[in-house]
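[SOLVED] Need 3D model of a two-part complex

Original post:
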Amino acid sequence: MEKDPSRTAPKASKDFYCGPIDYIDPLGRHLLRHVTLALSPPCLCVISGPSGSGKTSLLRAVCGLNNASVGVRRIGDTTYSPKKLPHWRTQVTLLLQDAPCLPGSIRDNLSFPFSFKNNPGRVFEPDRAMRLLKRVKLSQFHLDHQVDGLSGGERHRLALVRGLLWAPPVLLADEPLSGLEPELAQECFELLKDYARQGPNTVICVLHEERFAKQADISLRLKDGTLHRADHI
Amino acid sequence: MGHYIELTTFDLLLAVGLIVIASSISLALRLGLTRSLAIAATRCMLQLGAIGLILKKIFQINSPYLVLAWLAFMLFMASREAVRRAKSKYKGINLDALATMTFTSLTVGLLVTQVIIKVRPWYDPQYVIPIFGMIFGNSLNGICLCLDRFLEYLRSRQREVELALCFGATRQEAVLEGARQAVRTGMIPIINNMTVAGIVSLPGMMTGQIVAGASPVQAVAYQIVIMFMIAASNALGSMLFATLAARRLVSNRGIELQIGGNGNMAAKGARP
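Solution:
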């Protein structure tokens, strides 16, 4: 979270360390300048910042979805080389910005990650899926319901449930609450908070609303390519 | 080989009369096709004439090196044509096409000529050239369709591929569905052809053999081998091309291609 990587030396088994990250976007803007994220669970971290400041690029860089230069990716004592990106992503999973879905049923959409070769032994539990769907007010849909007709907000909630079921030690979420009415957004935010506490896990969200930043354990602001602690904390 | 009626130059001149019929229709209806028809007919005559002479020479000389050289030439032209026909292209497509066609035609061609038909000597141009030619021509079709479908998938389903990657999919897993659809598309024409073979159309090779005096049963036997051969080469070629294209276009970072206007793509490193 700070620019200086030497200040934090993660020791516990699920400490998250990623950086330093440098990224110049295709338009030539230097969006991230030597940014390092180092967080210990339980931790709910909210990142905000002006639009175009590189918040999405930061999350994508952490997951290796752009060509940013990333020094070290580490969880606890395990370091992940660029070749190990698929393994890293089973541990550090990003919920993409516009909550894409696969064609198929809700069950397909929630269970597909469990079929991947690199799945570290996690098992899809339909009962838990139903409970989570209920909490995000999607319980009117059966698991075999096709996802074609889902609205934007519904897809975001489905993506959230997918992420929570997958249960990685580090969950990244790029505007996971967009398109949700305030009460529902708060409920979903509580879910993320619980997830961080109960794991204990690390959750990093890019969110705009200040009210969420205030409820976070750590609130950061990305500006001019660097991360700062947000003022209101 | 059995008896067949040899065509003379005079017979060919008579056949030109058929083109005259087509031209007259074009003139009468003002189709504006007379010129292109004349050019096409001339090209057809010259090209086939040249091939006839070249093949005649190759048959006469009957040298394995010459046969191999001619096969290499056909292979090169076929892979170029496959790329030319593809709706969208990417950097490295030429090499991928050549590699696919080489591997596919060698595997299937050798199996058919050496194991099934048992051509002796192994390079006998009378068998080797037409059979490889048919593999080239048909796998070209298959891999073209497959590639178009695969690139279309990558273009339109980029978000889904990324979604899979986000949850730890290997890049093979992330594009598996696309590759499946692409190979399926590459296989459809030969499946259709096999389904209607003999009912809706008499396949060209079979017709040729019957005219040349082969017994219809033998002609059918050959045609069956050829159809199965094409099915195998389409399946193999489609799968290989999709795999090679995926290697180039999809990395751990996601889909590495930039979508340009009117369907042109170029592989590129950066993604926002």
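Edit: The mean pLDDT of chain A is 91.
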